[in-house]
Amino acid sequence: MTPKVRNSLLRLIPNDELLRVMDVCERVRLAPRQVLHHYMLPMEHVYFVESGLVSVAAKVGREKFVEVWLIGSEGLVGAPVVLAARGVPLHRRTVQLTGDAWRIRTAEFCELLESLPHLRSVVERYLAVVLAQTSQSGACNSYHSLKQRLARWLLIAQNATGEDEIPLTHGVLAELLGVRRASVTECLEVLQRDGTVITRRGSVKIQDAAELSKLSCDCFKLIEREYRRHLLPALDIGSRQRPPVSLSAPVGAGESALVDREPKRPSG
């Protein structure tokens, strides 16, 4: 029987390999603010995200981290273990939006990579996208305005969750974007006056995604193109009797692309 998975990377491998992966996986709940990988500590597990959103943050001060990319159901938390199984991460990976994931012990995952060629090919292709996104995120954080980056982030979160209301405080958004909380509040107030978003206690609701997309930077298009270039060829590695993987509309700048989404519910 074919396992039901939403993660796009898992959907790109043949059924026989997917069954092997599922044998060593456990489904876990991802809680907001849960740290999956700590800075400079061994990665005990890797996670194929099914739903929710995980931020990857670089250390920029003694206690300060700034988000450099995001991982949703199109990605893998812990892909760098392909390069060094015993390596320690230079980033912190934290759950920002609650969801679910398939968790595998790092040692078992590395063994699977040795014995499952299609899985290894897909993960290596994905790693190339991660490297591209890292450099693009650095350029984006240096060049684009806060309004552009905030619009981009909200759209990524909407795309990942399928929801218009994003359960994040101004403080968390400020931390992710590496700016003062007051700057985020001021920016959101402008967007609210324009009818683009509605701010509530502990959340931001997107009212006009089309307008927000116009305000966002174009970095997501570059990453989307890299995802297509590296991972669409992997569709040829095998066929499975389950719904085909489809490309989502490029509405965000995270590691977005191959996802199997339910129809977007209208704002109400």
What would your notes on this structure say?
- This protein has 268 residues and is α+β, with helices and mostly antiparallel strands.
- The protein has two domains: 10-142 and 217-259, Jelly Rolls (Sandwich), CATH 2.60.120.10; 145-215, Orthogonal Bundle (Arc Repressor Mutant, subunit A), CATH 1.10.10.10.
- The protein is 38% helix and 21% strand.
- Strands 1-8-3-6 form a four-stranded antiparallel beta sheet.
- The termini are far apart.
Using only CA atoms, what is the Rg? Answer: 18 Å
How much is the average pLDDT? 83
Strand elements, count = 13
Order of helices and strands: HEEEEEEEEHHHEHHEEHHEE
Helical proportion? 25-40%
Instruction: Give the neighbour order of strands across the main sheet.
Output: 1-8-3-6
Structural class: alpha+beta
Low-confidence stretches: 237-268
- What fraction of residues sit in β-strands? 15-25%
Q: Let me know the CATH homologous superfamily of the largest domain.
A: Jelly Rolls
Main beta sheet? 4 strands, antiparallel
- Oligomeric assembly: single chain
What is the global morphology?
globular
Number of helices: 8
At CATH level 3, the topology of the largest domain is Jelly Rolls
End-to-end C-alpha gap: 39 Å
Number of domains: 2
Proper CATH architecture of the largest domain: Sandwich
